[in-house]
Amino acid sequence: MLMGEAVRGVIVDHALLQYGTIQPENFKSNGTLSLLRKLLFSNIQTAISYVLPVSAERVNLLQTMAKLHSFECLPLTASSPDIASREIAQTWSHISGTILYLLPNHDASPKITCTYFSIALDDEVTSAFHNSNRIYMEKLEELPLTICHLNKKAISNDLVTVGYIMKPSREEDFAKRGAFPICPTPNGLMFLPLTFELPISKQLEEVDVILHKATDEIVSIELNSSSESSYQIGYTKGMQELQRHIENHNDCFEVDPLNSIYPVLDRLKIQQLLLGLEDLNVGGRCKVRAPHFLKVNSFDEPDLVQRLHDATLSLPSIVKPQVACGVADAHSMAIVFKVEDFKVLNVPLPAVIQEYVDHSSTLFKFYVLGDRVFHTVKKSMPNADVLIKSSEKNGSKPPL
């Protein structure tokens, strides 16, 4: 690869997609197609290829699959890289950069041959085919790592590569908005989706920074009853492997350090941190404070009314589990309008009872990176008067 010739196109032979007898309505759940969709979000031209002749039924299935994911469907006269490359160059004459062409090695190992070649603006294939232009893979999941390696080799070592890990739905939501581009950005950033399907240490050889959503990888959280804010966190095996790697490599830069995210797992700890907002108040400006709150271990406490009064809590109040995220029922909440409603709550314990603050169904969520502050606007729950009317319609049951 020549300097500046980053990967701009990927063509995958249909036999690698493992779609078998998948019906069109299930294409979205195919992991391989989801992987290729990441390339599209990074503005990498993506196509499914097949070698003629192919039955009309199979062609129709491939075209349906391609259309659903906004891929191209590319018929070729031969799978030979020498012949296929010239056909691809004619079809993709608008692309200037490196193209990857992936073929299965039937009944052989490694299972996938990835041939790469460059297309110049004059539509000519500029790379001769030899062993140095081929990379072998065992799994299609190695494709992003391969692209990352080739891009760094082509462009220079000035790129900062950010490896990231989070649940697929969150990743796709970000990617649709242009985040996490696998193609290098003008300011020298490149993103690599990490996968626990491959050894994590091998992937991190290409990475300068690790961006993780560790809470997506939590399988259990146990609160320590002997402490107001102490807990044991159980991660998936993959996250445990990543955690060990980070602990054993002092030069590994992570966003955020795992120790820094632990306070946001605990709503009681969050409330205690927010109490510090009062120290930031300056005369002549709007005062900022945390919502009033109370931790409870039971909704049947005989002195609950007095404790609510002592905590400056009036009704309505919102009741939340102390565990803030990472477990299935972390977001099981309720709005309470009458004291007797506490006795029928199904909110997991221990819980935090919090002052309900009217906010017109709008939340502002802030993110801080160094000295820069970002924010997003999110929809939220309506004001108390609207909730009261809703509660009356539901027979005065606490709305969940």
UniProtKB/TrEMBL annotation:
Its EC number is 2.7.1.159. Residues 288-385 form the Inositol 1,3,4-trisphosphate 5/6-kinase ATP-grasp domain. GO terms for cellular component: cytoplasm. GO terms for molecular function: ATP binding; inositol-1,3,4-trisphosphate 5-kinase activity; inositol-1,3,4-trisphosphate 6-kinase activity; inositol-3,4,5,6-tetrakisphosphate 1-kinase activity; magnesium ion binding. InterPro entries: Inositol_tetrakis-P_1-kinase, InsP(3)kin_ATP-grasp. Pfam families: Ins134_P3_kin (PF05770). Keywords: ATP-binding, Kinase, Magnesium, Metal-binding, Nucleotide-binding, Transferase. Its cofactor is Mg(2+). It comes from the Eukaryota. GO terms for biological process: inositol trisphosphate metabolic process. Gene3D superfamilies: 3.30.1490.220, 3.40.50.11370. It is an enzyme of class 2 (transferase). Belongs to the ITPK1 family. Monomer. This is inositol-1,3,4-trisphosphate 5/6-kinase. The lineage of its organism: Eukaryota, Viridiplantae, Streptophyta, Embryophyta, Tracheophyta.
